[in-house]
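For this section, I looked closely at the sequence of one protein beside the tokens encoding its backbone, which the following lines show:
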Amino acid sequence: MKLSGSMWSVSKSFFIFFFFFSDLAQYSTLNRPEGKILEPVGVFEALKQHGKYETGQLFLHSVFGYRGIVLFPWHARLYDRDVSPAAPDSVGHGSKEVKGKMHTYYQVLIDTRDCPHISQRSQTEAVTFLANHDDSRALYAIPGLDYVSHEDILPYNSTEQVPIQHELFERFLLFDPSRNPPFTARDTLRAWQEKNHPWLELSDVHRETTENIRVTVIPFYMGMREAQNSHVYWWRYCIRLENQGNEVVQLRERHWRIFSLSGTLETVRGRGVVGKEPVLSREQPAFQYSSHVSLQAPSGHMWGTFCFERTDGSHFDVRIPPFSLESNKYDKAPPTGYPL
């Protein structure tokens, strides 16, 4: 049995090495230093079917392939329009009510070595904040910070004391070999989480699938600023597009409708998203980005469609699930910088 266990560990270690680098095979000759040899990442652990992953858990992202580490969990209400509706704790948009189901997400750090390899499919500076000065539109970002759903976590362990390269890793986490996982939160992480909780908090997730293209939207309230004797409320929203079919498609246009509590309805049309027109295929099925919206009212709604093109030149619209823009009791934005 001891030999069998040893062989199983070696097998899992090899698989984690193969998964990560096979996903990034297209970069093997361009982005790696000359003569660089592929290295194992660690040893896979069993997936958690129940419960949550703890602070310090190492993982691979099952979709984007990057290495990361869990900082802390968020418990969000997932409104999935692909499942049958139910009444309690539901939101109604049009003729359909969708029940919110609790789901676990995680605040994580991305290994900076992997950022160049995923930047075409997922923004690595997607978590933004309002800057704390007079420019009401100024934003700043914390690079390598992400939100990851529980099912996207592929947990692993490593013998390295600093297995993730990120400027905040050693400021937020302390190596403790007596624990499992062997990394524990420093006081700086707890202070940062408490201080920035209103601007980091993930509370609602919205999801809908049209013709095998699944759209997931996560809105975040960013705070309020005063501009020209009026209040301007800011939100960021993260959108993930996933091709769950076999057909290659390309995003061509976006069409947004933005309703404000003040009574205004704005229509926004444009090519692609964040300057890109991503192709979704079986090899690279997902694309994730973040953007921002501001209203001169404390709440509103957004909905719309993405126009996709098939390889035969035909087009189809994919619904963006309607979601609310809600402010909270905090009317200030956090100061810039890290609490070091």
In short: Residues 249 and 280 are 5 Å apart (CA to CA). The longest helix spans residues 2-23. The chain has four helices and 20 strands.
